[in-house]
Structure formats: C-alpha cells, structure tokens
Amino acid sequence: MSQESEHGKWTVSSSDESTEENNDAEKPSTSSLSHSGHGKTSGSQYPCSEARKVGHKRKASPVKFNDRSFSIEISPAKIQRTSQEGLGWCLSSSDEEPESEGQPQHAQKEAVKEEKYSAPKKQPSRRFEDNELPVSQKPEKHYKVANEGQDTWDLLNGGNPFRFFVTKVKGIKSKYNSGALHIKDILSPLFGTLVSSAQFNYCIDVEWLIRQYPQEFRKKPLLIVHGEKRESKAELHAQAHPYENVRLCQAKLDIAFGTHHTKMMLLLYEEGLRVVIHTSNLIDDDWDQKTQGIWLSPLYPRLPHGATGSAGESVTNFKSDLIYYLTSYNSPTLKEWADIIQEHDLSETRVYLLGSTPGRYQGNQKEKWGHLRLRKLLKEYTSPIPAQESWPVIGQFSSIGSMGADQSKWLCSEFRESLVTLGSSVKTLAKPDVPIHLIYPTVDNVRQSLEGYPAGGSLPYSIQTAQKQLWLHSYFHKWSAETSGRSHAMPHIKTYMRPSPDFQKIAWFLVTSANLSKAAWGALEKNGTQLMIRSYELGVLFLPSAFGLDTGYFHVKKKMFSGSNEPVTSFPVPYDLPPEQYGSKDRPWIWNIPYTKAPDTHGNMWVPS
C-alpha cells in the first residue's frame, strides 16, 4: 500500500503482513545490536527487537532532515487498497488477523534449563579481573547517584510510603530527578551490602549491567533470567562468558510469540533482602532519557531460625505470591531464590503482586494470572464506590498487540470487565458505559522528545497491527507529564488505574511490565473456561486498603516532586491527569513507516530501513 501523509510517503507490501495473534510487540530478533548509546561498531552486543534495532541505527547514523538521498519506500504496493479518509492509512481488504487456534492445546511447561556457560569456539577464553574492563568500553554516561550527603533513609522511607519511583532522566531540570533513581542508586552499597543478586529481564546488555554494580560488588554471584532462544541466546552466552560470577537461566516459552518480559531484581544483602520490580530493560538507553517506573521494597530482615512457614507474610500475601511466581519457572536455581525469600520477613510489604506466566489455565488456576488475577484482587480487596460507572479506566503503555476486529473482541469485553471490578457487589455494571482512556505517544510526542525519533524504537507498534484496528485509535490520548518534568521523556513505563470523573482520586494503581496485549494479560478461550497467556510479566498493585485508607481511594498528588504540603497518602501519578485525547491531526507512533516531513529535536528524519 502507498500513502502520502503529513509525515511522508510510505508503502507496505502484502508480504509484510503480520501472521501473529500478535506479540507483546518487543519480539526478539535473531540479530544483535552494538552497544547502545555509544555508537560503537564492536564490543558488547545484546539481542533486541527490530524496532530497537532501527532506533539504535538511526541514533548512531542519523538521517538529516535535508538529506533526500535515502529512499523511503518500504516495498511496492501489491495489495487491494481502500481509502480511510483522514486517518493517513490505507487498509488491506483482509483486515482480520488469523486467530491462534492452531496452537497446541496441551503443551506442558518444561523445566527451565539451567545453563552453565561453556565458551563457543570463536570466543576468547580471557576473563576480566575485578579492576579491569573490556578494551571496547568507552566512557559511560555519568549520573549523580546516592551519596553520603544525601539522606538515603528519607529517600526510601520518608516522603514516599508507596515506594514508587521513576528513573532519572538526563536533560531535564534537576528538581525532577531529586526523588528519582538510577540503576546505580538501586545497586549502591548504601542500600545494602550485596551478597548475590538475580536479574529478570527481556533485553540485556551484560557488559553494561556489570558496570552498573559498584566495583566491590562486580564479582558477586549474579543470575540472569532471560527468554532468549537460538542466535539471541548464543549471543547472550557470549556476552556472559568473560564473567565467572554470571550464570544464565532460560525461561521456557512454549507458546508461540511469547516473551520473558518480566523486569525484577532480587538483591540479597548481608543485612537482608530487597525486591525491585520495574519497567526498564537492562540496557543503557532504558535508563537514560525515558520515563520508567520502579517499585523498591523495604529491606526485608532475615527471620529467626525455627520460624514457621507462614512467618514473615504481609497483609497482601506478597511473600507467598512471589514464591509461587518463582516456582512457576520450574527451575532448581530459582527454587533456591524462593527458599531465600522464605527465610526473610516480608511483612512490611503493602503492595499486591500481579504476574503472568505462559500457559493455558483452567478452574481456579485461571485466577492466579493475568487480567483475571487483577479481577480477583479488585473483587476481594476493594469496595464499591458510589456512581462508579462514571469512574473511567486508564491504560498507559509502550506497545500494543492485536485487539481484534472491534472493541467487543477483547478490550471492551473480558479485559474491561476485569479493570472495572470494584468489590464483590453482585450488581453488574453496564460495562460499555465505563470510559476507557488509553495513553500512547503521538508522532509529535516522539518527534519533540529528548531522544527525537530514535525514541520510537522503544514504541514498537507496527503498521501491520495498526491498520487492522483503526477503531482502537479513538481511545488514544497523548503523552504529557509536566507533573514529573517528563513530557519529553518517552514512556516505557506501563501503568493502569481507575480515576474518579474529576481525576482527583484513584481507586487503584498498577505499575507493570505488561503492555496492552492479549499475550501479556491473557485471553479467554473455550467459552471462557480457559485463560491462555503467552508471556512472563510482573507488576505491583496499590490498593487503598493496604495503606490504611478506608475511603476506597487515594488522592492524586498534584505535583510528583512537590514538597510536604500534600498529604503523604497522595499517590504520585507520574503523568498528567486528565489525559488529552488525540486531536484530528494526531497519529499514534508507528515504528516501521518513515517520518520525513518534519525534523526531530536533533534535526533528523526517521527512515526505518
């Protein structure tokens, strides 16, 4: 198809059409990228999505706005076209994605393979000592991390009872980073004397990750839990080879198009244990100029010897739920971490764990994962609110899967039913009357961002998916985050909430790795008797009751980094409310079409080739 729009001419051939149910959008490619952020052509590499690969390429080799030497046609149009006036796209006559009914119905989870790396023949056998780094390393970006002059105790405990943080962003006013965290802060010895750690993630640059640990912790045992396969897995192994303290654990992904998307750190200290659940990949770009979310647990002390099995549990059952999540991997190594968690006191936790793991679940198992887990928690631990049908639902994310031919297929049926649940009232709400506001960056959001167009590499919504669900875009709202100084730091954070009609209160708030996709949240099958989930995801849910509030809601903090003039129980939503709906000329960011009619903040165009 071919279309001239305000952002340039583009074409898509029928051979580019997606045949997936669809992925969580960050589908691992079998190619590798050079180390992000430094423009290197050799050295550390990490497997990544095709969108990330293009973003990296355009960052390292920008196409200047006045450079017309590049061809911007993707491929000749060979499919039937029907015009969609005003939307800037053309549609194929076959606008339905094939269903994934052909997937095996009885695939069982296999045990997670424990990997002790053995070097491939082409790899040098040299290992790095604690005080040296690879020759390929160039000077890294510097962030001000926690130091003795900073009141770390106040940062972690004083003005933030929710323990919810955003990441530091380079290039914004310092006041907007004063209560934010970089990965080096999280791994700082001020937070604990590290004994060992486990990093769960999707996209990982091992060399970069090792450098984020303080010098004295770089040889401590480190377990990396990933979902890479084939060439990408081999590349991750090659990255890990120089570090004797690094072990790899592959999470099995037996259902097609699934990813290991969970982002979590388990940090074992001499003083206790800490759990960190966040939204950032373990690569430089994700901790540089993006909006990301972090939940940082309290320091969990070790239980006394002889404590009973239920000791150290929180009112939110966080301990048993985390252990259950880890055991779902069927990994002996992660069983060791589950045992470590069992030995600690997690009773101070005030959030609920909400995860997804790949599988087809029936009976009571359905309610343990995905959106049905959210539905169960909201039913059991919230209370009905007067006129709650006028309280909208907000979903904010960085990627979008296939929603089907219309809103009734998933978004406004089973998914919305889970999100609008409040308490155990038998009254059934008129679900279509509950508004849904979806926050996803526009083309201009990306163009005017700190990173410019390359920020779009982390927003991998494809034209193949977008053109089949134009109905979805009427729900879209712009990214704006003046409250946190991050309007120009593109979001990789994912959040969901239930605000009041005036957006001054929220009934609940969720920060998670889960984007807007059936792969992440699960989809009902077999007449609603089975929930099918493709990916690993993890997040934490904030409910008023767990924070001693009997009102049924949190107040929304007016400014995320404001002083103590607001109640400590006001929740720090990291973006602006109410969200602003797309205007008639706004378009959602699509990563695999060119944008050549207007330059970004660096004077460049976007040419995804």
UniProtKB/TrEMBL annotation:
GO molecular function: 3'-tyrosyl-DNA phosphodiesterase activity; double-stranded DNA binding; exonuclease activity; single-stranded DNA binding
Span list, region Disordered: 1-138
Superkingdom as given in the UniProt entry: Eukaryota
Residue ranges with Polar residues bias: 28-47
Entry GO CC: cytoplasm; nucleoplasm; plasma membrane
Compositional bias segments (type: Basic and acidic residues): 107-118
Protein localization: Cytoplasm; Nucleus
Keyword list, A-Z: Cytoplasm, DNA damage, DNA repair, Exonuclease, Hydrolase, Nuclease, Nucleus, Phosphoprotein, Repeat
Site feature (Interaction with DNA) residues: 517
Keyword Transit peptide attributed: no
Active site per the UniProt annotation: 261, 492
Gene Ontology process terms (BP): double-strand break repair; single strand break repair
The keyword Transport appears for this protein: no
Binding site for substrate: 263, 494
Primary localization: cytoplasm
Gene3D superfamilies hit by this protein: Endonuclease Chain A
Pfam families, per the entry: Tyr-DNA_phospho
PANTHER family (alphabetical): TYROSYL-DNA PHOSPHODIESTERASE 1
Family: Belongs to the tyrosyl-DNA phosphodiesterase family.
Subunit structure: Monomer.
Stated role: DNA repair enzyme that can remove a variety of covalent adducts from DNA through hydrolysis of a 3'-phosphodiester bond, giving rise to DNA with a free 3' phosphate. Catalyzes the hydrolysis of dead-end complexes between DNA and the topoisomerase I active site tyrosine residue. Hydrolyzes 3'-phosphoglycolates on protruding 3' ends on DNA double-strand breaks due to DNA damage by radiation and free radicals. Acts on blunt-ended double-strand DNA breaks and on single-stranded DNA.
Name listed for the protein in its UniProt record: Tyrosyl-DNA phosphodiesterase 1
Species, as recorded: Terrapene triunguis (Three-toed box turtle)
Gene coding for it: TDP1
